Amino acid sequence: MSSIPNRSQPLVSIVMPSFNQAPFIERALDSVLQQSWQHLEVIVQDGGSSDGTQAVLFRIAERDSRLRWFSETDSGPADAINKALKRVRGTYVGWLNSDDCYTPGAVERAVNQLQNHPEWMLCYGQGQHIDGSGEPIALYPTLPAMDAPRPVVPPPSAFQQGCFICQPTVFFKTVMLRLLGPLDTNLKASFDFDYWLRAFNSFAGRIGYVPAIQACSRLHENTITHSQRLTVALEGMKLLAKHQGIAPAHWLISYFREQRQAGVDSTVLKQELDELLPTANRWLQPHDMKLLHRLFDESSMHKPSKRQ
Questions:
Q1: I want to staple 12 with a disulfide (CB 3.0 to 4.6 A). Which of 40, 185, 260, 302 is the partner?
Q2: Could you read off the pLDDT of 77-88 as tens digits, one per residue?
Q3: Containing structural domain, residue 275
Q4: CA nearest neighbour of 176 among 194, 153, 155, 202
Q5: Which of 218, 240, 264 finishes a domain?
Q6: CB under 8 Å to 190, separation ≥6 — which residues?
Q7: 211 and 257: one domain?
Q8: Are residues 208 and 273 in the same domain?
């Protein structure tokens, strides 16, 4: 049985989309339910898993009533998250994927910061990439960096260089849901990036940073970041053009360099680039188009890529 929380504390709602993540979901739930901040609820929105996930959810819910779970078909992760968000009852909301996990004390640190800064609508912290077995890989390229002498949240223009917010480190006020609306279900990979852009545009000066490693983001072959790399790049460029008017070419350049380094034949990549340009050129500046056309020069393909 779960311990009895202090009901004078604000309730924190953690939403968790899930689909066939049985190897990871128990670890994800344990990282929530074992937090020092006990007054929380977890809402798992399962997409009809058939790998034993539901048995794990049933077993954990039997011993801890703070877990509520629902299983029904959905149109993708953004749809599942939106369904879970409609069920939240808390003052603050966190969003943890079923293969990620919080670090100890993460919820308490976020709540303390949000309470100490009542003007904040959203806060985020440092993330740590881990592999399928849970071993650390590298820190997520969060801004500001952990060792920054004066950690100041960067302006929205910093998103041009890449998404500097690690999604599972984010906590926000429930009222933000009513002000921003749901996630865009038309996006297949970058619905979180779109939400951060919308939040930064709508709540200038009201975004906060927690200077601690708040969550571990797991990288394995089935993650969106790994399996839909090109979709991430194209959707990211489209969203930057929509919200900020321009989209730098390095989002695509990074993708093609990674493919080249992975051994994909340059002829195949050139054909893929030619097929993409009619879509991408609506977002790019003329000088960026020239960069893409020069992409397959050996010298340019091996320059260090920017963060994405």
A1: 40
A2: 999 999 999 999
A3: 248-301
A4: 202
A5: 218
A6: 231, 232, 235, 236, 239
A7: no
A8: no
